[in-house]
Amino acid sequence: MSSEIPEEIAGLLTVDRSIIYPTSTLSVMYFIYGFYVLLFGTYVYMMRGRQQDNEHLNHNLYPLLTVVLFVLSTVFVAAKTMDEVRRSIFLFTTLQTGDYEPLLNYLTIDVTRTVAVGLLNIVAALINIAAELMLIHRCYIIWGSKKRVAVLLLIASILINAVGLVSAIAQTVGIKDRNDESTIVLLKNALTAGFVYNIVSAVINSVLTLLTAGRICSVSRIILESGVLYPVFAIVGLITTNTTTMHAMPFDFWPPMVLVAGIAPTLISVRAKLGKNVESLQTQISDIHFSSRPAPREDVSALS
Fold this sequence. Notes:
The protein is mainly alpha-helical. Helix content is 79%, strand content 0%. It is built from ten helices and no strands. The chain is globular.
């Protein structure tokens, strides 16, 4: 049993970092994921009658990507839960026993942690790719299937998401052995690339939202309100993470940002579908009101 707390883990061995921080992080993540489950269930219910609608075959891409987004988000939540629980167990055990060696091994050379972090980073990048593909395809259809629009957006998305995937893989390699100086340098470069990726990704999502909303005035409010969720969460998360000390952060902003990337396009689809249903219902009510008008007065007097 070690008598002195190693300097590199001294800041972690507090009640806030071992209990309150992971609890608040998981609570916020579960709250957002719970909303996502309800939203996805609503989407599935509304899409049951999709075959009765006269929709273009290209729209089959939306249900597929919506399911992919939900599955990836579920994997992310499960992996993040496992990672936070294991981390809390190591921290709490260290506080209880005073043995710092297991915690040091967990932070530097733990294989399970490396796999979990790698899975989280890669799944987060895949969620962003699927969400952007969904928004690009919708924008392409709305702009009259103009290939020039699709090509420019796809090139921008491919380039930035390639950076995101490379950053995710490099971060995974960089944390597998924190005792190696070369892996530490790799990790720092990967984190910098990830920071740039998050900023540019938020910009691309904002552009896609504005392009789509600006083309359809009737649903521009739906698209703006729903599509702006991810850029807002990304900006808030980046500002908070890079301007606040680790000890001052109430929870990890990364999981909400990842989940909102999947929620935003699903929310657009659900709200647009609800708008169509309301419009159809109003038309039916208008028809019923028209057909139930009282007979003209001259007809009544003619019968009398």
